[in-house]
Amino acid sequence: MDISERQLRILQAIISDFISTGEPVGSRSLSKNHDINVSPATIRNEMSDLEEMGYLTHPHTSAGRVPSDKAYRLYVDGMMQKYELPEEEKKIISARLSDDFNEFEKTIKKAASLLSEITNLTSFAITPTQNADMLKYINVLPVDEETVVLMIVSSSGRVTNTALKLNCPYNEENLALLSKNLTYTFKGKTISEALTIDIINNLQSDMQAMSKLAENIMPNFMKTLENMLDVNLYMDGLTNIFNIPEFNDIDRAKTFLEMLNNKEDLTKVLVSRENGTIITIGNENSKDIMPDCSMITATYEIDGKLIGKIGVIGPTRMKYDEVTSVIEYMTENLNNTFKLSGGE
Amino acid sequence: MDISERQLRILQAIISDFISTGEPVGSRSLSKNHDINVSPATIRNEMSDLEEMGYLTHPHTSAGRVPSDKAYRLYVDGMMQKYELPEEEKKIISARLSDDFNEFEKTIKKAASLLSEITNLTSFAITPTQNADMLKYINVLPVDEETVVLMIVSSSGRVTNTALKLNCPYNEENLALLSKNLTYTFKGKTISEALTIDIINNLQSDMQAMSKLAENIMPNFMKTLENMLDVNLYMDGLTNIFNIPEFNDIDRAKTFLEMLNNKEDLTKVLVSRENGTIITIGNENSKDIMPDCSMITATYEIDGKLIGKIGVIGPTRMKYDEVTSVIEYMTENLNNTFKLSGGE
DNA sequence: AGTTAGCACTCATATATGGTGAGTGCTAAC
DNA sequence: GTTAGCACTCACCATATATGAGTGCTAACT
């Protein structure tokens, strides 16, 4: 059975009412507040059909109708209008996402914070997965008699370093030689590739003399590479959940917050999401991780290469149009910021 | 009126019962479960006196007694026994707080996470304030034609860096000269002191030629110094609050989580706390920030110099003895870890 | 055939009612 | 000073009743 034009109008009205009030929508209020020029009885008949088709549900016999996930999906895919952000809001976003000092992580944190502030939802952002990032330059620098700093620069411009206490003496020439050798060996390799290289053996062949030094440094080098693969997760607006009536229930709030507390699983979910603006609704999400929630994510880019994500999570009843526009406007801004400044 | 020996015994029993059950304690169950060899009626008389002295309160006429903040203070200061951690727990703590790769921040994060796991409370940790940390070594390194890395090593062993895109050409000699000059100017200065130095003018005198380069780099240098002063706050076990019956109420849970959400204020509170193991109970804490909560914090040291803090926050009804022991054992471990490895 | 008015029915929510029990406070006796 | 006894309080729980929003169905209307 196909959905009729009038049914579509009614469904849209129900979704719109429910999104703004959170209360099941009854036939009478529908015919009053929207100019559907038919009587409540007719609307009831149509609603009954819509329910049969799976677009509506019924919390109990004497309650109004509530849109199902399927209805939201229809709405998001076809019925939703593009929401134009007010200029004022655009200005706020642009202003707050500027990044004068190359402080990439801080900017992302700010973005998450701003997003939750504007949407009144819980927001999160992940930094890019760097496994596609290539190593560019490795340097081991002297600090004092027993300390050196290991510095790794990747082609995206990210610099990572670690201070190491050595338990053997070194001289600057050796460090320079080691730096050169490491750069030569790893340059152009992605981090993932680099992790598979058995460097100790590689080095031994041509620089036996330094093997002691290398043995000291290499485990830390590899560990640092591993750390570079870590994705950081930022969240904000956790307590916004309490302002949403549906979650004004200790158990739901608890489930929600516990789900977010499990950062590892959440990170996995985020990392594995497709790129671009993605909306997943209710049980489209893995049920055990986040029941009855919708998630909207979009991707931002650093210098057009590394891809991170930012988004919100909230009840299936959310203002999909507004939130989507906010997120997309923010990612546009982030892309510009991270292009001009050349990423960190 | 002074508190009698017997009253003290009764008070202790009430506190102990209330801490473990969370229910107001009645006279009958007291005389049954503790060997106070007097009848419930006598206990009632004593309780009435204790209430008059401000050690107990009464939720309503027909309920048992509940210890007041004043009672907890008395308990913590004088009556509390030292709690010996089970060997097993000690082993777990020691094992999980080892830090093989100098990953200071990760270790602190782990510590907070472990602390909330063991105590079932909400835990937090702040990294040391570094304003007493001295600068040791500053280096500006070439990366590619337009990028340099600014590296700052402080005497505590911490290394900080930032990648900078320059909008003027440079040559390696200039960088080396600048590095030398910066190191000469700032070495031995604390970060706070360093921030007050008008370096541009200092430089101009003896290295005019490089002023363009310096103008490019110095704002970022100062910004980086500012960032080094930032204190990081880690939290864990946020959702533990839901397992505490007193907070099984949407409003209290909300207040609690919103208070923790305000990281700036929380950080301020933590930073301004005295060093050593500090217990603050209920309204001893700033009322608007955390009503009806107790807080236990202790300090850890990096190389005996920089001082950070770790602690828990929870209901006034908490196992002060156990929690204190856990925190103190953890800070001991952290101190060792950060001494052996020499800090980061 | 589609639309509508009318009406019985359902059920969550709110409110009132009474019973239960833990615990107190007081009095009088030991 | 201690204790038994007893009336009293009050949160808590279960049950009963009222309310009202909203449905589903039927029969009449266009």
Question: How would you describe the overall organization of this protein?
Answer:
The structure is a homodimer of 344-residue chains. The first copy, chain A, is an alpha+beta fold. Chain A has three domains: 5-79, Arc Repressor Mutant, subunit A; 87-129 and 231-342, GAF domain (Beta-Lactamase, 2-Layer Sandwich); 131-229, Heat-inducible transcription repressor hrca homolog, domain 3 (Enolase-like, domain 1, 2-Layer Sandwich). The first copy, chain A, contains 13 helices and ten strands. In chain A, the strands form three sheets. In chain A, strands 7-3-10-9-8 form a five-stranded antiparallel sheet. Chain A is elongated and about 90 Å long. The mean pLDDT of chain A is 90. Chain A binds a DNA duplex (30 and 30 nucleotides) through residues 24, 26-29, 38-42, 44-45, 47-48, 58-64.
